[in-house]
Write a structure and sequence with these properties.
This protein has one helix and ten strands, in the order αββββββββββ. The chain is mainly beta. Strands 6-7-8-9-10 form a five-stranded antiparallel sheet, with no helix packed on it. A three-stranded antiparallel sheet has the order 3-4-5, with no helix packed on it. Strands 1-2 form a two-stranded antiparallel ribbon. A hairpin with a 6-residue loop joins β1 and β2. The longest helix is centred in the first third of the chain and has 16 residues.
């Protein structure tokens, strides 16, 4: 009986010490849960790049829900292998953006504590500083 009690206490102690299966985002430094939803961006072209002033709309799609995020000149998906080139965290769920006539708009989505954060950044050929100037533009709670 004593062996059984000792083994039970050991197992309880071991289970209590086990770490959660979470990942730490390298760029944000925040702990994030594995994605609970399918998240992606959808770009819809209103006027294409052959026009004098192209226009696209950026939508965030969470599962089957589509939310308009912005109007930009051009928009295309950014592959995960290119995230580093745009200062997008490796743990971002999706990213898109585009460059037109000396300026670019860029977006990425990341999940933090059950909420999707949409970050928007920009670059301009005339800017005097470095980087993409990302700021949070919207949040979407995961249901």
């Amino acid at each position: 009986m004593r062996v059984f009690v000792c083994c039970s206490i050991f197992l309880l102690f071991f289970a209590a010490c086990k770490q959660d299966q979470k990942t730490k985002g390298p760029e944000t430094g925040l702990t994030t849960d594995p994605p609970k939803a399918e998240v992606r961006f959808r770009c819809e072209t209103i006027r294409d790049a052959n026009d004098e002033n192209p226009q696209s709309q950026v939508f965030l799609v969470v599962n089957d829900q589509s939310i308009k995020v912005a109007d930009v000149s051009v928009c295309a998906e950014i592959s995960k292998s290119d995230y580093n080139n745009y200062q997008i965290p490796a743990n971002a769920l999706s990213a898109c953006g585009g460059w037109w006539a000396g300026a670019g708009d860029y977006f990425y989505a990341i999940e933090i504590k059950g909420t999707i954060l949409v970050m928007q950044g920009w670059q301009d050929e005339g800017q005097e500083d470095e980087g993409f100037h990302y700021k949070q533009v919207t949040t979407v709670p995961i249901q």
